[in-house]
Amino acid sequence: MARLDAALARFSAALDLLEAKLEERGEHTVPAEIGVELSELRQERDHLLARLTILEEESSTLAGVSEAVETRLDGAIAEIRAVLGRG
How far apart are CA 51 and CA 33, in angstroms? Predict the structure, then answer.
């Protein structure tokens, strides 16, 4: 997830830099082509951020399930060893 977070941060920074450079050049009105592309890029960024949030939640849920399974397996192994007299 850290790589995706970093990529999204770079993506957002690039969009911000592009807008700033256009403003520096005195282009207060962005050419139609660039405006459409910027809008699409912003939508893609927003979509990726939403997807990242979902994936982070799923990852957290899976980590909890994995921990519960590990605990149960450790308990089962301990019981089996006790039954076998290796406890």
Answer: 27
8 Å CB contact between 5 and 52: yes
Residue with tokens 């941060």: 9
> Is-contact 87 78, C-beta < 8 A?
yes
Q: Give the global pTM.
A: 0.57
- H-type helices in the chain, by residue range? 2-24, 32-84
The CB-side HSE value for 34 (13 A sphere, CA atoms) comes to: 11
Q: What is the pLDDT of residues 12-38, one digit of tens each?
A: 888 888 878 777 777 566 677 877 888
Give the residue from 70, 69, 58, 68 showing the smallest Cα distance to 1. 58
